[in-house]
Design goal:
Elements lengths: L3 E5 L6 H14 L4 E5 L5 H12 L3 E5 L11 H21 L3 E5 L2 H11 L8 H10 L3 E6 L2 H7 L8 H15 L2 E4 L5 H12 L14
Parallel strand pairs: 1-4, 1-5, 2-4, 5-6
Helix pairs in contact: 1-8, 2-3, 4-5, 4-7
Length: 211
């Protein structure tokens, strides 16, 4: 059996907690599963972000680096974001192992679009990222904006209403399983993920009752 589930959703939707519970459950069932995580801005893009900050290109669009990417650099930035994330995706998700993803390429696409321009969604880089994301079972952990704000830790996400709207839209594009985490606790969310995506042979709903 091969398990590849990717949880995606805005900060505060419960991805990390649900991933830990789901991975622990699979391990108790004798399935070696690792939790993998992706963030926005990796390696080459991260180095460029740090250089931009040193050069004084400070701003609020990317709160984790404190920079605004100049529009003239968007195309370069978009390519770097995808190409920097690709080796991480291959190492953590594409290899033949059981994976529970806490953030994935869907989150990366939305992060780049929100911190630069939504025109990114029409690029070859965004389309390639979403195509690769389909290699996993996508599970969208949805949460109302006001609930996410109460739960969130760390810097405020850029353009939060836009981020939530993008998650809703891309979840529909991917045909992802959707779970509203404002209506259930972490354990119930994990059960629902199992019920809707996995059973003892990899698909179906039978194991959720045993959690």
């Amino acid at each position: 059996m091969r398990v590849k589930v990717c949880l995606f959703g805005p900060d505060g939707s419960g991805k990390t907690t649900a991933a830990k519970i789901l991975a622990a459950y699979l391990r108790r069932r004798g399935i070696k599963a690792r939790i993998s995580w992706m963030r926005g801005t990796h390696t080459a893009a991260s180095l460029l972000a740090r250089a931009m900050r040193r050069l004084g290109l400070k701003g609020v669009s990317n709160p984790y680096y404190g920079i605004d990417v100049p529009p003239a650099l968007y195309r370069l930035w978009w390519a770097l974001e995808f190409l920097s994330a690709l080796p991480i995706w291959i190492a953590r998700y594409a290899l033949p192992r059981n994976v529970v993803g806490d953030r994935c390429l869907v989150d990366l696409v939305i992060w780049v679009a929100a911190t630069t321009d939504t025109k990114f969604l029409k690029t070859v880089w965004a389309r390639a990222a979403l195509a690769l994301a389909r290699d996993c079972v996508p599970v969208y952990l949805r949460v109302p904006l006001e609930v996410a704000e109460l739960r969130r830790r760390g810097p405020a996400p850029p353009r939060a209403p836009l981020v939530h709207a993008l998650y809703d839209a891309l979840a529909r594009v991917l045909g992802a399983t959707e779970i509203d985490t404002s209506l259930s606790g972490p354990a119930e969310t994990a059960v629902e993920i199992l019920r809707m995506t996995l059973d003892g042979t990899g698909r179906g709903c039978s194991t959720a009752r045993a959690l």
